Every structure is written in C-alpha cells, then in structure tokens.
Amino acid sequence: MRTPRALHIITGLGVGGAEQQLRLLLRHLPMRCDVLTLTNPGPVAEGLRADGVRVVHLGMKGNRDLGALPRLVRFIRREQYDLVHTHLYRACVYGRLAARLAGVGATVATEHSLGEDEIEGRKLTGGVRALYLASERLGAATVAVSDTVAARLEKWGVPAARVHVVPNGIEATRFRFDEGVRRATRARIGLPERAFVVGGVGRLVPGKRFDSLVRAVAALPGAHLLLVGDGPERAALRRLAAELGAQGRIHLLGERDPLGDGADGRTPGIPALLAAMDVFVSPSREEAFGLAVVEALAAGLPVLHVTCPAIDDLPAAQAPGARRIGTGTQELVAALRGHMEAGARRLPQPPVVRRYDIARSAERLLAVYALALPGPRPAPTPPPGASNDDVPPTGFPARGPETTPIPPGRHVHG
User: Fold this and answer.
1) pTM (2 decimals)?
2) In this protein, which residues make up the domain named Glycosyl transferase family (predicted)?
C-alpha cells in the first residue's frame, strides 16, 4: 500500500503559535508531508527545511489575490496529494476550495485561533463567518485545538459530527528544569542571580494585554520581567516601562525559538528562558488553547492566567500549579507579590503535561486522517501505556527521507 502524501497549506510561516505547532507536529507524523505557505516564508520555513520538509511559497499578495487560486489548484493537481490539511483562516478558505477543484476529497482544516469575537485577530463580522462556513462545507473534517474552540465552531453552525478535537502538543522533555541552564541564562541576560523574575510569552498585540503585566511588575520593586515575543505593541510597551521608571527591569527579548537555543548557541530559546523565570503569567482575556501556559507548567513554573482553555477545560487536579485570576492589574500585583514573598520554587510536571504530549496529538490527528481518506481503515490498537481516552494508532507507515527542500523565496508557477 502506497504511503499517503499530504500537503499542509498555511497562511504564513512567520513566528507564531500555529506555525510552530505545525513544525513540531510534522516531526511526529509518520507520513510524507509537504508544506505550502501562501505568504511570508519566514523563520518557521527555515526550521521546517532544516527538518527535511519541503516548503513551497505560493507568493500570494493579499486576501483578494484571486490569481493565487488557480496556481494553487494546478500545484495540488500536479503533485497528486492524497490529503490536504489547511491551517489559519486565509489558507482554510483558499486551500479547501483549491483542493476541491483539484479533485482531492480528503481535506482537513485546523482551527487554531477562534475566539468569541475574533479569529486570528480579525473581527468576526457576518461576512467573515459566512465565508468561513461556506468553505468549511468543502472539507471532510475540521479540527479544533480545544473543547472551547469545538464549542465555538458548533455554535457557529458547524455540525458536531464534523468537528474533532486534537489538542496542541509539546515535547515536554525540552522544558524539564535544569538549575545549570537557569544560572547560565540569567547570566547571559544580565539578571541578578537571586532576582525575582516574572515571565510572559506571546505576540505583542493588544489582545494579549501585556501592558497589564508591565504595570504589575513595575509596581514590584526589585522584580524583573522577561517578555518573549514580538509584534506591533513592542514600542508602546517599551515606552510604558520607561514612563513607569522600570525600563531597567522590563526585558523585551523579541522572538525566540520554542524548540531550543538559537543556531549561534548563545541566544537562549524559550526552554532556557522558562528555566530563568520564577513565575509565568498569561494575562490574555481570550485564548483558543494557551500553549505557552502548558510549556511553563512543563518547566515546573507556577502559572497565573486569565484564561487558558488547555487548563480551564480540565479538572483542577490536572494542573495544580496553575491559578486563574481576573483581569485587574491590582489583583495581578497581589498575586505576584505573594509568589515573591514565598520565594522561588520549582514544581513537578503536572498530569496535564503528559496529556498534551505532541506524540499523542499526532496520533489523534492520524485518526482524523483515517476518517477523511478513502478506502479501508486500519483496525485500531491502543499504544503501549495508553489510557482509554487515547486515540489509537492508525496504521500509517513511517515517513521516508524523500522530502525535497525548495530554495527560499521560490514561488509556484503553473
């Protein structure tokens, strides 16, 4: 039996949660996968190529670049993919239609970032919702990254039978705490060895509410903030720190690799930066999953969060180190002061970390693929050590080494 070939279509490959999750997931899918990005073949594209994944840039110029559709159809038809998997709004709209026109019946889409009022930062107008629902009907299945997102999709009108929950995942061993890494990372950044360090990770956009985190840390003399990520709010956050007289304690570190240190060996990645922190804060009012919170828990950090479906959808015993708080800055200040007075402590990895192991997420996704692909479905057998709620393996053979890297910037032509 021939190994199924899959094409993953994504809007862009800059640094972001969905993009990084795709890269990590492909490391655990036992099948041949190529990636096509509609726009912006950024740092994640470089990481995918380093992993041996073929990456193609379509060169789409914007949401209304309708000429991209026939190019995409021709590419899918020429490469004869068995399955197309789309990620993020624009890729889902164009990718599902292109797959249908190219004759691919097995089309799966993942909804990574659906909130109550926004989708990927885009306001949920009637037109946005109507276009999404129209394109959703062209696919075989829609994947939600959490029960919260699944409920939102069903509320929109997506039939429950078409929605499958496949949580985001992490490689927990990358985040396991190491005291030596903690000391070395603090020294690289220039942090005092005994300083109380608060951390946050995410896109620097208004919806993440990192301004409240800057205000809270500024109100705690001696505390430092490591804020990892980039975005349009970076300059405003820097100005706010200066206005509050805390510019020397607020460290805006920019984008960092979630899988490890930089290629130069000297730039700490997210695992090392988490090791340098004492408490992690997610002040965002709205999240589709909350992957950064799970990574922080894997690093043994106590966590304060406003909302995090990855935790909130589960019993409290799954993540005893996570505490939900309100949106007020004073409540955050009080909670941080409590951690500061109690002193730094590391927690054991909670049960939720194993639940969101990336290998388990890959198995769940393979089960969705088995439903979408035509032909007989392999008989399921639970993997060793799996619990009853695990999704079983689906019989896909291991991915071979036949991926073909494409030079950066190459476009698809008919």
Assistant:
1) 0.84
2) 182-307
